[in-house]
Amino acid sequence: MAGTAFARQVGNLPADVTSFVGRRQELAEIRRLLSVSRLVTLTGVGGVGKTRLALRAASDQHRAFDAVWLVDLSVLDDPSLVAPAIAETVGLRDQTTESPMRALSAFLAARRTLLVLDNCEHVLDATAELADCLLRAAPELRILATSRRSLGITGERTMPVAPLPVPGPNGRRTLKSLERYDAVTLFADRAAAVLPGFTLDEDNGEAVAALCRRLDGIPLAIELAAVRLRTLSVGGLVERLSDRYRWLTGGSRTAPPRQRTLQALIDWSFQLLPACERALWTRMAIFPGHFDLDAVEAVCSGGDVGRDDVLDLVDALVDASMVLREEHDGAVRYRVLETLREFALARLGGVDSEECGMLARRHRDWYGTLVRQAAGDWFGPRQVAWFFRLRLEEANLMAALESCLREPGEAETGLRLAFDLYRTHWLPASLFIQGRQWLTRMLEAAPRPSAVRAQVLCAAASMAFAQSDAATGEPLLREATNLARELGDPASGALACMVAGKAARDAGEFDRAAPLLEEAAERLTACGDLSGLASALLALADTSSCLGDDERAEGLFKRGLDLSAAHEESWCRAWTLTIFAVHLWGRVRDAEALAAARESLPLARAFDGGAVGGAAGREASDGRLSLATSIEVIAWILTGQGQHVRAARLLGAAEAIAGEAGVSTARMGRYAEHHEQCASALQEALGGKGFARATHHGGRLSVDQAVAEALGDEPAREEAGEAASDTSPLTARELEIAELIAQGLSNKEIAAALVVAQRTAEGHVEHILAKLGYTSRAQIAAWMTARKSTPAPPPPRA
């Protein structure tokens, strides 16, 4: 290259001044991507650690290149300066009239180079054009870029950089489990630098977990928070996070100004967005949790954001790392990190602003319509789909209720929404505490006599009785009954009659319950309330069974089953089969009882996605209680048939499932005597240690394992076969993952627990299946359970 001189250097990567935490899987993925693509772009929200990750990746691979150069583009304010900045960085001193691009291309073509282009977002077009030209001219060149959004050129591979994993909000954790989360490790490391002697311990562990969670696992936010330990405790930091932009300041003086405060960092990203993207993004702050595209189109379009433009704008915002794309139960959802959402809300003028109020009304109306649709479809074939859809939307549903309370004159709307949620969400999901709190708040906000108030009073009374809180339930029911009578409203009157009948039945007053429930069934039929009718028929059948009127009871059970079957409904049908099984067992009709109980299991299982003995934090559902009761009945039957080991395992599984549902013993009080009789018989047959071992084994089964065994499949021990020996074909890491599978964790949860990518966890699971010759996770769980158990002869099959 005549007329050109260059410095004899192999790179300019800076040395680390603080420890690098985690990101092992991301580093491996960058290495893989660079092996198959010559341009890899790390994308992610500001402060997520793209630069630090790129530098570590480049440092790890510097031996594979003749030179590794870091070019910081954040200081440029003119796109035309991109090429000169790169040339200056690599030591190119151009002394000819040759264009800078051509000279740079020739220079890079002469050696194997890794170019790290950092902070490309504000000069994106110029960087993309230059990268494309350089890659075409220099076949040995590799580019690793960092940007809020992809460069968008042929051959580019993008890798989104997610925030660091954070502990979930549910339950206390051990210090060892907390230390598995990179966000916690990062905070502890940076805190020790600010406050010598700081360590993670039992006193501060939960506060650190809460802090990292509230900061969304964003490394810069965590590091800025750690600086505040000079004057605040961890608990004090958590308390002040409601005003995080005020407190999260004071970054390194040598950092760019935009990285010294959280406010400046996010404002930098915001200002880079086109006006229409800024408008949509700020409006999306109205969603408190994740949301779908239909909701964005309905709630956030209007003015300068056309409804037809929303899809493209959302796509652009995802590309710009301002919105996260997630998958929940197979559905694509979107989320704005809470840290960014607070910034967007401030841009709207705060929650009390006129624009925010308008968006809140749209949001409330959209989700109110959604819940009305769910209520209308509830007693039908889409019931399970609606159940899970509403679980996904819980944060938005609660925000809609809050909006009804905040907006003057909307309390009546809130009452209707609350009643629909009672039937479609709180009751089937066993969310009694949450449901009662909202119903109470709505009743207090809307004291005016109305039919919907009477219905909500019935709902509140029903949930109080379900929790054995008759002292609260009785006055609510009296008010509901009187109000329904005064208004002459048949629907609320029928509902009040049913709640009264169920309360009498649960209190053991069967003679009083029967006529109330019979009247309720007639009135609900007249009202066309099929869901209420199915529930009343079940309660009346159960009451008739307790009164010894077997013929009437069986006729009512079958009528309820026929009603549910005709409408392809699952929830009431599962419960009806469960209680029918109890009735048949009590009449020594074991074969019919076993068939009914087993038929109920897959129906109830459809409403539940958790596992016994698994990770905390899964949402329980009323399906759990139905499952537990059916499995318990099967244990009673098998005890009578002499299948003691299997019966004891199922008894342990039933207890674990009911416990995870959070159901009080009082609610299952009528079956307590049968449970004790079964347990005593099994203890006598197996001995105290044998009974304890079998029930412990059952309590560790996943829900799928317990259901499979209750359905008559081979027990978990038999599935494991000889694998209970001390030898194992699995590596230590694979054994660790197999144990998490046995605890009921999903691949996503395993990845979070071990701080690896989900695809890595999936790969390990596939290897485990292949090594063990299995085809299902349940078999892996059974193998692990049997491996840890004392060998014993398998029980006979049912």
UniProtKB/TrEMBL annotation:
Q: Which GO terms describe its biological process?
A: regulation of DNA-templated transcription
Gene3D superfamilies according to UniProt: P-loop containing nucleotide triphosphate hydrolases, Tetratricopeptide repeat domain, Winged helix-like DNA-binding domain superfamily/Winged helix DNA-binding domain
Q: PROSITE patterns per the record?
A: HTH_LUXR_2
Task: Tell me the InterPro entries matching this sequence.
Answer: NB-ARC (IPR002182), P-loop_NTPase (IPR027417), Sig_transdc_resp-reg_C-effctor (IPR016032), TPR-like_helical_dom_sf (IPR011990), Tscrpt_reg_LuxR_C (IPR000792), WH-like_DNA-bd_sf (IPR036388)
Domain named HTH luxR-type: residues: 723-788
Output the Gene Ontology terms for molecular function. Answer: ADP binding; DNA binding
Tell me the CDD domains matching this sequence. Answer: LuxR_C_like
Name of the molecule in the record? LuxR family transcriptional regulator
Q: Which source organism does the UniProt entry give?
A: Planotetraspora thailandica
